[in-house]
Each structure stands twice: as C-alpha cells, then as structure tokens.
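Quick one, tokens below:
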C-alpha cells in the first residue's frame, strides 16, 4: 500500500490544506465541516456554487486511511474534478463508461492496492450488483473511509435535477452502516434538504448551511433598447476574461454569437439545436480558454465546471429568480470579482406573458405569472438587488451591499404625492375595472376609440395628467403597486384596485415618494469589489504569466485554471517571487504545484524583471523562507504583504477580508505583524485617535504581554481587535 500521509503527518489542518491545495485559510464552514467529517459524523453541506464544497470531502479523504468514494452525476464533472486533483498530485481516479475494459481493470487493481484516495463514480455504477463484490473487497482490504454524495439534490423529486438512480443510494447505509457519509448540494430550499437527509438515511447528520450571498458578484440591470447589442459589445470589450451570454431563443443565440464574431470577439454558440458533438466541442473550447465567450440558451450550464467565468449577461429576461441565481452564479466561482448583468425591457415581459398564455394548464399559468412578477420586481426595483434575491431564499439581508447598481448609484427619491392622488382618483373614476394602460390613456387625455366609446373623456380626471409622459405614469403605477398603495388582480387581466393604502393617499394622510425616473449616469463610482489595480509592468507580467499558463495547460490537455487560478497569477505578478520559498507562499501553490511549475514560473518572472529593470520582491522571498524554516515576528510573509498593499490602496480591513476571501481575524493578524515589523500603517484609519490614547495609556500601565489585562484596565467598551491593533503599533514604536 502506498505510504500516504495521514492526519498525524500535519501539525494542523491549515498545514494540510497548504500542502495539498496551496491555500492558506479555510473558507466559511470548511474547517468545522472537515473536523466533523474526520470524526466520522454524517454531514449535510449546503453551500452556494463556488463556495468550496469539494474541499470538504477531499481534504478528509487525504487525511484518512482507506478510499473515499465520491458519487457524482455527470461524467464531465468527474473528469474535471479528477483532473484538478491529479494536478495537485492527489491520487484520484474515476470509473465510468468512457473507459475500456483494460483501463477499468487497471484502475480496479490500483484501488485494491490502496493506491487511490478518491474514487469518483456515477450512482448507477456504484449501485449495480456487479460492483458490490469490488466494494466489499475494498472494505475488507484498504477500507472505505467515507461516501461523499455530490450534487445530492439529485436524490429529491423536489429538486431541479432529479435523478432516479440517486434514489438507490439509501442501500449504502443498509449495506455499510459504519461508513460515514457526507452529502453536498447548492440547493436553497428546505424541502429538498430534508428529502436528502431522509433518502440517504443520514445518521443524525450535522447540517451546515452557509449563506447564499455571493459577495464577489456584482449585480446590475440595464434597460434593453434597440442599441442593446452595442451595449453588450461594450460590456464584453470592457471586461477581461471569459463570459457567458444567455438568450431565450436559439435564433437569438446564433445572431449574437455571429455578430460578436464579426466584431472581432471570439465567441461560440451553444443550444439544443446543435449536434452533441458540436456542443461538446464548443464547451471544451470555452473551458480551455480557446474561445472567450459562449452565447447560450439555458441548455448550457449544468456540469460546466469553469471557476474563472468573469461575467454572465442575460440578454433576455431570466425565467425565475431561482434560475437567475443559478445561472448568474456560474460567474466568479473562484471568488474573484465577477459581473452579472440583466437586460430588461417591457417588450420582453410581453413576450413572456404571451408564452404563458399559451400554456394549457391554468395552475401552471398562475405559477408562471407569479414567477414573472418576481423577476420584474427584481429588475424594476430601486433597492439592493442582493436583498431581493436573498429574501427569495428566505434569507434576510440588510441591504446596502455596496456591490450592486442600486447600492452604488442609488436612485434619488422624489415626492410624487399629487401625481399619486391624480392617478388613484382616476382608477376610482374608472370604477376599478381597468388596467394601467387605460388609466394612463384617460389621464393623458387620449382620443383612442375605446376611451371615447366608454365616455371616459367626460370623467373629471380626463386629461389632468398631460404634464407627464406615459413612461413616467407607468413608473408611478408600478411603484404604487410595489409599495402596496394600489392592488392589481392576478387573474391574468391585471385590473387596478384601490386598497386601504390608496385611500390613505387620497385622503392626504400619507405622502408618496418614488424613485425618480431618470437615473444619473451610472458607472460613476468604482465597484467595491474591483480587482486591485495592477501597475503597467504588473499587468504586462500578468499577461506573460497567462500565456505561460495556457501553454502549460495545452501541453497537458487540461484547462488553464487547473494549472493556476487567476488570483494566483495576479499575486505572482504583484509579488514577483523568484525563489522557491517565495513562490510557495503564493496562494494556490501547494507542494505538487511547486514541484511541477515553480521553476518555469519563477524563471519567467526573473527574466521579466531583468528585461524591465524591476527588482524581484526579495522581501517576500526572504520572508517566505523565514516562515518555512522558523517564523520570526519581525519578518513578513507574502500574504501579510498582500494585505499591506491593499490597505495602502485605501481598502478597509473588512474590504480586504472580502477581497481576499479571508477571515477578518486573519487580516487583523496580518496588520499586527506589519505594525510590529514597523511597516507604514496609518493607525488612525483603524482605531480613532480618541480611542487610541486610553489604550496606549493602559499598555504603559499594565504592560503589553496580556491582552486581557489591558482590557480589564480599559473596561468593556473596548474590544480585543482594537486593543490588538494599538498594541502592535506600540510594539512597532519600541
Ligand atoms: P463548489 O463545488 O462549492 O461549487 P468548488 O469546490 O468547485 O465549489 O470551489 C470553488 C473554487 O474555490 C475552486 O476554484 C476552489 O479551488 C476554490 N477554493 C475552495 N476552497 C478554497 C480555500 N479555502 N481557499 C481558496 N480557494 C478555495
Ligand atoms: Zn446592493
């Protein structure tokens, strides 16, 4: 049996994480989940796409004796995972129908030799009677460490991808009750979660639900006009990296991909009208960065494992909020900033309404109308987009996310009480029997036949609203509906009805404020999450590193992100590591990647530095060397220096934590080291001067060694973080 490392080989879970995957810190609940899994608990993990679910079973698999069996629904997903693991030097393999008999035999004997830590399988294979003997032999020889059920929502009929084969998985617990199980999914609904637990017969599972907020995604909605294609083109040109553009019809997909190509953008179509082979090829080209943009119908998505998609554009209206969440969620899985844009027009709403009316079943129509209403709410709303999405999943979010168009460019409010009274009294005069468009016609004094036939030109409200455009009245009407100051029938006719709120407005009891129609020109402010700006030289170096990554990836027939994530390349461009030690301090560089790529990358960086007259970052090099031998408090690691760079650029500590995907505590820790090492840090930005003084005084009085003693001296109104920061500054000054 191969001499694999186990938990005892590592001083901490963090060091194992760095060794195998090259990361410095766990995300969200990863650490707790891994601890539970290592204890042999059954665990149910619910984490949004890109949250880092895989690591939750992969790291325990590497730290335990025996093989971990991973159930995965799609061959493409399995191959992808195995490819990434192998690139990290991890013994993973899969068994599926794509293998020849001889290949499968070879893998089976490697398994029985104990040479494999992670085995990926489709559920039908695992549950087939032919497979049981192998499973039993495995259990008796090398041992089965755990079962991991990926995309576990496939077990539930209530989920969006029900797979009958998943239903058989309950037999695993019957046959091998002592083997712990971990189930993972991104599904948001409670019902599916319960179903997973029951169907898989999880034993007193620990359930971890991490929030559905995808902080790194920037959301925006843009009006769709005749010039929308130009708008899309502009977006595509502005944003670097890969992108997906979703359209509703095949015709639109073909049109947009064709026009993009004509405009010099590398783009390919993807829809159900293409042959399997074409679809497969287009997808593969996208994943390997041979083509930058995929224009697709919603047929594209499931099974696409590309973490570095930088933007997702919905050229047409999404169908539901849930589908929008899933589709836009394909952006930024690597945690780097990414952009999600919806183009919205009422003409599209009318098309969708028309399609809904074609549905034969009334219940179905009603559900579809309600879903459409939610999508329109999302698109029209002037409040935080994130808040609307998350409330749809039952998660309360305070708003002010600083990373959506409404939060970055708030639409000002205006008092429209008088207009509201005019509108509502017109609804009353029309006897609450008409919809929005008719009421607006009357208000604006239309000579339409219908208005005249009904005698509505004789109403007292006829023509009193000519001072506003049709669009402005519509906006007001929608806003009244949003604010529940007016109701609308939901039987498909959308007749306006007055409610209690309407009467309060009419009786002048409450004012009405609405968001003004014309937005100020957006893009005025920078996004909170914009990637750190690189200098000219850094950007050049980054481009060279990208090319190198692409070449190495092509040589091994893997997608570029398997070699290194974008964030790792960016750090290399900023820190310019040229020694092994400095290189290994880059996030994403584990033991295997260091061996495999360290030399090539550091050489490229060194050549670049020489030809551009740049000094390679020797501080980082020395500091990294110091941490690998013995870390001394006055020498700094690359990750601490990255934090310093971001701080100097004006980011707050919590922004740095978000930007880097690290915990706030870790960032404070970095700042402590930086200040203690006498790095330039403006303490005033961290702790206000009035609060600094008493802390300094307390330190002088009771000494610096015990945080608790300092706090006892100061009292409860001071927290440990601010004390830590001031103490570090004090130590730096010594
Ligand atoms: P999910 O399966 O939840 O959609 P993945 O497991 O594919 O997400 O992880 C998404 C991305 O995040 C991957 O590129 C992965 O390497 C990265 N990742 C996971 N955990 C960490 C971590 N602790 N630090 C940095 N990156 C991580
Ligand atoms: Zn927001």
């Amino acid at each position: 049996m191969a001499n694999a490392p186990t938990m005892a080989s590592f001083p901490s879970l963090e060091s194992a994480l760095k060794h195998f995957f090259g990361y410095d810190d766990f995300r969200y609940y990863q650490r707790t989940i891994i601890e539970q899994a290592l204890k042999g608990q059954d665990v149910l993990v619910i984490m949004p796409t890109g949250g880092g679910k895989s690591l939750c079973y992969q790291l325990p698999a590497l730290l335990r004796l025996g093989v971990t069996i991973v159930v995965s629904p799609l061959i493409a997903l399995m191959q992808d995972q195995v490819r990434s693991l192998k690139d990290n030097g991890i013994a993973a393999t899969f068994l599926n129908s794509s293998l020849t008999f001889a290949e499968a035999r070879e893998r089976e004997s490697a398994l029985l030799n104990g040479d494999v830590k992670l085995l990926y399988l489709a559920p039908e294979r695992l549950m087939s009677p032919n497979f049981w003997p192998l499973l039993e032999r495995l259990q008796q020889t090398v041992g089965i460490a755990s079962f991991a059920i990926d995309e576990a929502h496939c077990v539930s009929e209530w989920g969006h991808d029900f797979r009958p084969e998943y239903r058989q998985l309950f037999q695993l617990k019957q046959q091998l009750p002592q083997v712990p199980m971990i189930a993972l999914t991104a599904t948001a609904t409670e019902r599916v979660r319960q179903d997973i637990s029951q169907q898989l017969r999880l034993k007193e599972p620990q359930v971890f639900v991490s929030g559905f907020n995808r902080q790194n995604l920037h959301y925006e909605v843009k009006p769709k006009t005749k010039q929308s294609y130009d708008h899309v083109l502009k977006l595509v040109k502005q944003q670097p990296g890969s992108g997906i553009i979703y359209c509703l019809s095949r015709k639109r997909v073909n049109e947009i991909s064709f026009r993009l190509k004509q405009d010099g953008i590398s783009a390919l179509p993807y829809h159900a009208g293409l042959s399997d082979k074409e679809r497969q090829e287009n997808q593969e080209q996208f994943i390997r960065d041979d083509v930058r943009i995929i224009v697709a119908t919603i047929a594209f998505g499931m099974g696409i494992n590309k973490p570095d998609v930088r933007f997702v554009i919905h050229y047409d209206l999404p169908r539901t909020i849930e589908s929008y969440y899933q589709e836009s969620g394909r952006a930024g899985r690597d945690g780097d900033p990414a952009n999600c844009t919806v183009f919205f027009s009422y003409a599209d709403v009318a098309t969708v309404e028309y399609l809904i009316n074609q549905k034969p079943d009334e219940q179905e129509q009603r559900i579809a109308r309600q879903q459409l209403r939610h999508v329109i709410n999302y698109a029209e709303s002037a409040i935080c987009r994130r808040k609307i999405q998350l409330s749809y999943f039952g998660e309360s979010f305070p708003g002010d996310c600083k990373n959506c168009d409404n939060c970055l460019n708030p639409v000002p409010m205006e008092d429209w009480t008088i207009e509201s009274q005019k509108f509502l009294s017109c609804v009353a005069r029309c006897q609450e029997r008409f919809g929005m468009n008719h009421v607006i016609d009357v208000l604006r004094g239309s000579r339409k036949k219908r208005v005249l036939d009904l005698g509505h030109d004789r109403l007292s409200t006829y023509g009193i609203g000519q001072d506003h455009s049709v669009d402005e009245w519509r906006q007001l009407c929608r806003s009244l509906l949003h604010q529940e100051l007016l109701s609308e029938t939901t039987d498909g006719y959308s007749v306006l009805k007055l409610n209690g709120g309407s009467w309060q407005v009419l009786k002048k009891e409450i004012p009405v404020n609405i968001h003004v129609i014309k937005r100020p020109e957006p893009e005025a402010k920078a996004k909170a999450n914009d990637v750190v700006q690189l200098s000219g030289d850094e950007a050049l170096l980054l481009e060279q590193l990208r090319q190198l990554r692409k070449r190495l990836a092509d040589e091994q027939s893997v997608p570029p992100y398997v070699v290194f994530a974008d964030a790792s390349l960016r750090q290399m461009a900023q820190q310019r590591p040229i020694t092994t030690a400095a290189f290994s301090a880059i996030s994403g560089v584990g033991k295997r990647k260091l061996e495999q790529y360290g030399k090539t990358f550091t050489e490229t960086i060194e050549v670049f530095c020489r030809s551009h007259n740049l000094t390679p970052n020797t501080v980082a090099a020395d500091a990294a060397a110091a941490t690998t031998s013995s870390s001394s408090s006055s020498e700094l690691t690359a990750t601490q220096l990255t934090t310093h760079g971001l701080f100097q650029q004006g980011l707050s500590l919590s922004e740095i934590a978000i930007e880097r995907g690290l915990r706030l505590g870790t960032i404070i820790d970095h700042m402590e080291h930086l200040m203690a090492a006498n790095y330039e840090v403006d303490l005033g930005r961290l702790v206000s001067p009035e609060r600094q003084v008493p802390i300094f005084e307390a330190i002088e009085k009771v000494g610096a060694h015990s945080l608790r003693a300092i706090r006892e001296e100061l009292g409860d109104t001071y927290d440990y973080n601010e004390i830590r920061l001031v103490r570090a500054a004090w130590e730096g000054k010594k």
